[in-house]
Design brief:
It is built from five helices and five strands, in the order αβαββααββα. By secondary structure, it is α+β, with helices and mostly antiparallel strands. The protein has a three-stranded mixed beta sheet with strand order 1-2-3. Strand 2 and strand 3 form a beta hairpin. The longest helix has 25 residues. The radius of gyration is 18 Å and the shape is elongated.
Length: about 140
């Protein structure tokens, strides 16, 4: 299964913010949309970074509540690993596992077109395994 298939099911809506938004607003956005990360887009529409719940916890642990008034770019992850729609769930899962992150922006021609999470990838892998098991049971039953 490809990233394109995941996006076809879940949709391509992506919550984005600017890197200068206060961390407090990032927290509010994550809570409002019930998501675990937000992609931060620069003035040219390119990915500047990504801010996850983990980044926020680190900021609060380091600076306390004062971090909430600082801009997101003070804490965002700037080495954003992206993928293409043509990549497989196996490829994406391997990169997420190796990099120890849970959200991966999907890009086409350097433009953000979606986000996949480890939950999306795992759900599709489980679905595929269950389908293969059902097909194997059906094949055995007819043999």
């Amino acid at each position: 299964m490809t990233v394109q298939a995941i996006l076809a099911r879940k949709g391509r809506q992506v919550v984005t913010m600017g890197p200068k938004q206060p961390l407090r607003e990032v927290c509010e956005t994550l809570a409002e949309h019930k998501i675990g990360a937000v992609v931060l887009i620069d003035a040219h529409g390119r990915i500047a970074g990504i801010m996850s719940e983990r980044d926020i916890v680190r900021a609060l642990a380091t600076e306390g509540a004062a971090a909430l008034d600082r801009p997101a770019d003070a804490y965002m992850s700037t080495k954003v690993v992206t993928c293409a729609e043509s990549e497989t769930t196996d490829q994406v899962m391997a990169r997420m596992t190796t990099g120890r992150f849970r959200h991966m922006p999907v890009v086409r021609e350097d433009r953000l077109i979606g986000v996949v999470s480890i939950g999306d990838v795992v759900a599709r892998r489980i679905e595929l395994a269950e389908r293969e098991a059902a097909e194997m049971r059906a094949y055995i039953a007819t043999a």
